[in-house]
TrEMBL record, chain A:
The keyword Nucleotide-binding applies. InterPro entries: AAA+_ATPase, ABC_transporter-like_ATP-bd, Oligopep_ABC_C, P-loop_NTPase. SUPFAM superfamilies: P-loop containing nucleoside triphosphate hydrolases (SSF52540). The lineage of its organism: Bacteria, Bacillati, Bacillota, Bacilli, Bacillales. GO terms for biological process: peptide transport. This is Peptide/nickel transport system ATP-binding protein. The keyword Plastid does not apply.
UniProtKB/TrEMBL annotation, chain B:
CDD domains: TM_PBP2 (cd06261). The keyword Cell membrane does not apply. Keywords: Membrane, Transmembrane, Transmembrane helix, Transport. PROSITE patterns: ABC_TM1 (PS50928). It comes from Paenibacillus rhizosphaerae. This is Peptide ABC transporter permease. It is found in: Cell membrane; Membrane.
Length: 336, 336
């Protein structure tokens, strides 16, 4: 019996514009992450992936605001905690975050070890400087990072090294969930590989129990995560195992998204790449019907008029008016 | 020799070159002003004299005494030779006072006026700027335009307005000078009281202008740093706000420290206009008098003092900065 480590239900968060309009970038998201599992979140730019990642941390900084819904870590709703409780009990200890631009995530005038000391002063005040040092050296060595990094200033590290250092710092308190927001997007392929290996190490050595990996590079997710969830216009449109999502997508958006990338696997030879025409809708004026209808080649009148709830079929979830049989038939026809 | 020592020697060399150029310009530029200083002085001294022979003899004595009969290059060599013995020559206008004596009597007034004013203005300005950036809202909306307004008033206008309102109209403060001129400088309460009363207006005018400039700079820097990625990242690791504020303001202070060091360096040359408007007995007023009388040695003496202190301040900043800011140190090393 696996336990749910992260349970998100009905989460709505919005950006407040200068004109006091509310733009819901995360609009009613539900998902569950089981202990020991990894989940990838994919989607185009502007679909709310990064906002979701930030929202999961429980802290909201203007212009991002919390709307409604709950985020439970091990059954404890962190949205019901005070800011101080959240800071001292959750942030960094239960759930940790790797920002999109890890390049600038470190204070330029602080040596790495000083920053780690500051984190420990908040969460493990009983440790002496020497103990923190020993602990940091041990952790860095375990993760194949040179302990020399600890004495460096951020500007003395290369981009890939900085990214891995940020990951090591984020996970130094062994958080249960790690949320990685596009940790590889600014890196070259070699550094990407090193980062991926580091994430796998963290999971193997049980420094973290679960991982939420956000990216727009789908092939990467296939190799890293158990499940993939696709977001569109602030909503989840489909979730399934990585295998299902890549080779047997249900939702037309997932289908198009997978059709626009290369997955270096067998059976993909001769596969034509196709871009998805159009752009995601402006979230200031959300369409009444299915949010993808405008760009969907299978859309019918009912799609444009009514939105649809997430359906669950054979343990898979998708958000579409049509049943799986119809969708698969269409896809099969298209192929031939 | 390590990289830092190399850097130090290289910098020192360039500063010496600059100093040589400055010394030459200090000597030649005043002597290129149209006019004959000796004629001006002699015509004043011989007022009422009718015997043209006597006048001629007085004139020739002065020409010889001042050494202006020799070719310019020879004068320059004598000037440089004297410099090495610390002799800046004899003033024309206040003959037979030595330039060094005049400067020695003026420097305490200038420093006594400028140093406290710059320090007070700098500290208040930075605190206001930082608070405005941190608190935002109404406080910022009031402080920022006011600072911008004060900073945009040309200094001489501000000084004259203050002089007109507080000294002339309200009569709260004396109009000019460093102390009541009928007093003899001594360590009595009366004399010190007089000095303070004369000090207040020029002091306040410099403080006001300094606050304006510093507050604007600090506000901009703080806003930039507050939005830096490391602020969000540190928060999400559970680091308390007070510690993050310390990161932010330390980083925002760095350029401000340069500003402080520079204004302390340029302090001796100081606020010429302020001293002239308030007829304050500092370097500025002497330089102004010297230029009007074409008192070459005194002009060169004042400008040499100013050049020296500016160079020294810049050099000190260049050297110290490497220790405070790791980024600058790195770029210094790369220069090699």
């Amino acid at each position: 019996m696996t336990t749910n480590i992260l349970e998100v239900s009905g989460l709505k968060t919005y950006y407040k514009t200068r004109l006091k309009e509310k733009v819901f970038a995360v609009d009613g998201v539900d998902f569950v992450l089981e202990e020991g599992k990894t989940l990838g979140i994919a989607g185009e730019s502007g679909c709310g992936k990064s906002t979701l990642a930030l929202s999961l941390m429980g802290f909201y900084f203007p212009p991002l605001h919390y709307g409604s819904g709950s985020i439970q870590i091990h059954g404890r709703d962190i949205m019901k905690l005070s800011k101080e409780q959240l800071r001292t009990q959750i942030s960094g200890r239960e759930i940790a975050y790797i920002p999109q631009a890890a390049m600038n995530a470190l204070n330029p005038t602080l040596r790495i070890i000083r920053f780690i000391e500051d984190i420990m002063k908040e969460h493990r005040p009983e440790l002496t400087k020497k103990q923190v040092w020993d602990m940091a050296v041990e952790r860095f060595e375990t993760l194949n990072l040179s302990p020399k990094v600890l004495r460096s200033y951020p500007n003395e590290l290369s981009g890939g090294m900085k990214q891995r250092t940020v990951i090591a710092i984020s996970t130094i308190l062994n958080p249960k969930v790690l949320i990685a927001d596009e940790p590889t997007s600014a890196l070259d392929v070699t550094s990407q590989k090193a980062v991926i290996k580091l994430m796998k190490d963290l999971l193997d050595k049980q420094f973290i129990r679960s991982l939420v990996f956000i990216t727009h590079e789908l092939p990467l997710l296939y190799h890293v995560t158990d499940d993939i969830m696709v977001m569109y216009a602030g909503e989840i449109v489909e979730r399934g195992t990585a295998e299902q999502m890549i080779f047997d997508p249900l939702h037309p958006y997932t289908k198009k998204l997978m059709g626009s990338i290369i997955v270096p696997e067998e059976g993909m030879k001769g596969h034509k790449l196709a871009a998805i025409p159009g752009t995601p809708p402006n979230l200031k004026h959300v369409p009444a019907g299915c949010r993808f209808a405008e760009r969907c080649s299978y859309a019918q009148d009912q799609c444009r008029e009514n939105n649809v709830a997430v359906k669950e079929v054979d343990g898979r979830q998708y958000r579409c008016h049509f049943d799986t049989g119809t969708l698969k038939e269409w896809y099969a026809n298209e192929q031939s | 020799m390590n990289a830092y020592a190399k850097y130090f020697v290289k910098k020192l060399f360039w500063y010496l070159v600059t100093l040589v150029i400055a010394v030459s310009l200090n000597f030649f530029l005043p002597r290129m002003i149209e006019g004959n200083p000796v004629a001006m002085i002699v015509s004043q001294m011989t007022k009422g004299m009718t015997d043209s022979d006597t006048i001629k003899r007085v004139y020739e004595t002065f020409i010889q005494e001042f050494g202006v009969d020799k070719p310019l290059w020879q004068q320059f060599l004598i000037y440089v030779q004297n410099l090495f013995t610390g002799n800046l020559g004899t003033s024309f206008g206040l003959y037979p006072k030595k330039v060094t004596d005049i400067l020695a009597s003026a420097v305490p007034w200038t420093i006594g006026l400028q140093l406290p004013a710059i320090l007070v203005g700098w500290i208040l300005g930075n605190v206001l700027g930082a608070v405005a950036a941190y608190k935002k809202g109404v406080f910022d909306k009031v402080i920022f335009p006011v600072a911008l307004f004060v900073n945009s008033i040309p200094f001489f206008t501000l000084a004259i307005i203050m002089l007109y309102v507080f000294a002339l109209t309200l009569g709260w403060f004396p109009l000019s000078g460093g102390y009541d001129f009928q007093m003899i400088p001594q360590l009595s309460f009366e004399f010190i009281g007089s000095v303070i009363r004369h000090h207040t207006l020029p002091f306040l005018s410099i403080v006001l202008v300094t606050i304006g400039g510093q507050a604007i700079g600090m506000r901009e820097m703080s806003i930039y740093e507050l939005n830096a990625d490391y602020v969000l990242y540190s928060k999400l690791l559970g680091i308390r706000d007070s510690r993050i504020s310390r990161y932010v303001f330390r980083n925002a202070m760095l350029p401000q420290i340069t500003g402080l060091a520079l204004s302390i360096g340029t302090m001796v040359g100081g606020s010429l206009i302020c001293e002239i408007v308030f007829s304050y007995p500092g370097i500025g007023t002497w330089l102004f008098t010297a230029i009007r009388q074409l008192d070459y040695p005194l002009i060169s003496g004042c400008t040499l003092l100013i050049a020296l202190s500016v160079l020294l301040a810049n050099f000190t900043i260049d050297i110290i900065y490497g220790f405070i800011d790791p980024r600058i140190k790195a770029s210094q090393m790369e220069d090699q």
